[in-house]
Amino acid sequence: MPKLKGFDFLRTLQNGPQIIVTTAHKEHALTGYELAVVDYLLKPFSFERFLKAVHKVNQGKSTIQPGISTNSEENQVFLYSDKKYTQVNLKDILFVEAAGNYCKLVLTEDQLLIREKISDVLDLLDAKRFFQVHKSFIVAQNKIETIQGNRIQIREHQIPIGKSYKNQIKEYLKLS
C-alpha cells in the first residue's frame, strides 16, 4: 500500500474484519498477533496451508465442523481429486461410499473420487445433515427417499444399512 502500511491500517480499525496476513517478512509476525490477526502465512505457502487459515476464520463464524468453509448462501467444502481442489456444495452430496483408501462422493450431477478415509470425510460433514449408515456409507439425510428393511433408497441407488448402525436409523426416524 503506497501511503499507509497494512499494519498501520489495521490499527485504525475499531471493529476490523478477521484478517489473514500473507507476507514474505517473518519479522512482522509478532505485530500481526498483537493486532489479533487470525493467521500469519509466510510466503511461499501451500494451498493446503491457505485453506487451513480460511477454516480458522470460518470456525469463528460458525458452529460447523472444521474442513467446511461457509458463505451466506450455502455450505461448501474443498476436496482434492484428480490433482486439483474442487469446491463441492454440501447440498449436492447424495452419499459417500468408501472404496479402499478412497471415497466416492456421489453428487446430484456428478461423482468425485478422493483419497480420504471415510472417517475423515465424516468429520468434514455437518453431523446434522449427514450420518453414517454402514461402515462404507455416509448418506445425506434430506436425500433419503425410502428406508425398507436393511436398505436406503436415494434416487436409483440402494445403500445398505449396517447392523451396528440400525439404532441410529431408528433414532433418525423418530425425530423425523
Describe this structure as you would to a colleague.
- This protein is α+β, with helices and mostly antiparallel strands and 176 residues long.
- It contains five helices and 13 strands.
- It has helices at 6-12, 29-34, 47-61, 118-124, 166-175, and strands at residues 20-23, 39-42, 69-70, 75-81, 84-89, 93-99, 102-107, 111-114, 130-134, 137-140, 146-148, 151-154, 157-160.
- Strand 4 (75-81) and strand 5 (84-89) form a beta hairpin.
- The longest helix has 15 residues, at 47-61.
- It is elongated.
What's this model, at a glance?
By secondary structure, this protein is of the alpha+beta class. The chain has helices at residues 6-12, 29-34, 47-61, 118-124, 166-175, and strands spanning 20-23, 39-42, 69-70, 75-81, 84-89, 93-99, 102-107, 111-114, 130-134, 137-140, 146-148, 151-154, 157-160. It has 5 helices and 13 strands.
